[in-house]
Amino acid sequence: MDVTVAPPLGMLAELTHRCPLHCPYCSNPVELTARADELTTGQWLDVLDAARDIGVLQVHLSGGEPLARPDLPELVTRAADLGCYVNLVTSGLGLTEERLADLTDRGLAHVQLSVQGPDAERANRIAGARAHEHKLAAAALVKEAGLPLTVNVVLHKANHDVGALIALAERMGADRLELANTQYYGWALRNRAALMPTPEQLAAAEPVVRAQARRLRGTMEIVYVVADYYEKYPKPCMYGWGARQLTVAPNGDVLPCPAASAIATLPVDNVKTRPLRDIWYDSESFNAYRGEEWMREPCRTCDRRSVDFGGCRCQAFQLLGDAAATDPVCSRSPDRGVVDLLLRSPGEQEEFVMRGPVAAR
Amino acid sequence: MSGKPRLRKGVRLSFDKTRDTHVLLFPEGVLVPNATAAAVLELCDGESTVDDIAAALGTRFRGVRAQDVTDVLTRLADRRVVEWT
């Protein structure tokens, strides 16, 4: 391998797949890790130590719902003491004033709060739970604690109302708002036809986002993630495979991207059986699509190969059955027709298949 | 430029032993400030003015001008790292 592997900057620590919400766009895998198979507190502490040791500076404590882990405070303490920037990615359910004050004392730096829709009725329907009011309360707690707040919204056909969502995030006092069109991985792929926004919705959203981002400059930053099926070029997925970030799943599986378990042909290492350093630098999974050596045409000689890195490996596998193919979203892919066909006839699905609970074991 | 610069809420300046450099940590990612920027950032406490910062740097480095400090801070403000109070 003639690629210099840089140390990882960030780790997404998926502490659990348990979650009080049932969002149809859930990007977690279809097969969730059961509670009994989650890493123990001691194992997570070791993962945090190992991650910092190889250079991780940002720790995103996520899930599922990370607040479902009673050892969350201990993990925040460790990550913060190691000098990491600690981000809590939460539904807000279960966040109380006491818990947040404790986490803040322990070094929590930032909270990312999911919101499902612009009003309670739509949001609760999408979440499959009476969650919206809890989220408004959680946002207020984060602001009172003096922590920066990012509101995350996954956009799809049933909530593509960016004007109302921006207004809501403003009322919640968000410092940042991420409006991300659904990416079709894990459970979300099952609901693609019902989730896929229309071209009219996308065309209407973009000028609103632009105008509001201008108006809110300096107050609330708006990050808009486009619907890649409709784009000419693929997203620069993970800024390169095994380049910046790693994901540790609830059972200790280490993945180059949060969706990578979708790639059935990818061998996966686990922190219980291999040191994190080895996995980052030497594993087959992290080296599979690192750099440019793995690329075929049209990527191999493409002038955009260092811009988008061939796009998303998971998407190539899911749509073409070949993780080393050019992301078929790319207009230069010989398989772009697959995506065009999906856009022309997304299939008949009006109702969501809601995310089910984790199998009890 | 008048005012007192400070790190924006949610931004932390830290030293990374793995990379042997200062790093700026914030929700969107990590920035590696150069030595000059790191020296300026260490003095951005929301209390000191640009002149104060330039004077403090002048005790460590030769020929520091307030305009240099302002230039660095303007770039950092554009990157949403620094804000003016």
Automatic annotation (TrEMBL), chain A:
Cofactors demanded by this protein: [4Fe-4S] cluster
Gene3D superfamilies: Aldolase class I
Pathway: Cofactor biosynthesis; pyrroloquinoline quinone biosynthesis
This protein's UniProt keywords: 4Fe-4S, Iron, Iron-sulfur, Metal-binding, Oxidoreductase, PQQ biosynthesis, S-adenosyl-L-methionine
EC number(s) reported in the record: 1.21.98.4
Cofactor stoichiometry and binding remark: Binds 1 [4Fe-4S] cluster. The cluster is coordinated with 3 cysteines and an exchangeable S-adenosyl-L-methionine.
SUPFAM superfamilies: Radical SAM enzymes
Limits of the Radical SAM core domain: 5-217
Matches recorded under NCBIfam families: PQQ_syn_pqqE, rSAM_more_4Fe4S
Biological function: Catalyzes the cross-linking of a glutamate residue and a tyrosine residue in the PqqA protein as part of the biosynthesis of pyrroloquinoline quinone (PQQ).
Subunit structure as annotated in this protein's UniProt entry: Interacts with PqqD. The interaction is necessary for activity of PqqE.
PANTHER family: PQQA PEPTIDE CYCLASE, RADICAL SAM DOMAIN PROTEIN
Protein name: PqqA peptide cyclase
Species in which this protein is naturally found: Actinophytocola algeriensis
TrEMBL record, chain B:
Keywords: PQQ biosynthesis
Pathway field: Cofactor biosynthesis; pyrroloquinoline quinone biosynthesis
One Pfam family cited in the UniProt record for this chain: PqqD
Keyword RNA-binding set for record: no
Keyword Oxidoreductase on entry: no
GO molecular function: quinone binding
GO biological process: pyrroloquinoline quinone biosynthetic process
Assembly, per entry: Monomer. Interacts with PqqE.
Protein's UniProt name: Pyrroloquinoline quinone biosynthesis protein D
High-level lineage: Bacteria, Bacillati, Actinomycetota, Actinomycetes, Pseudonocardiales
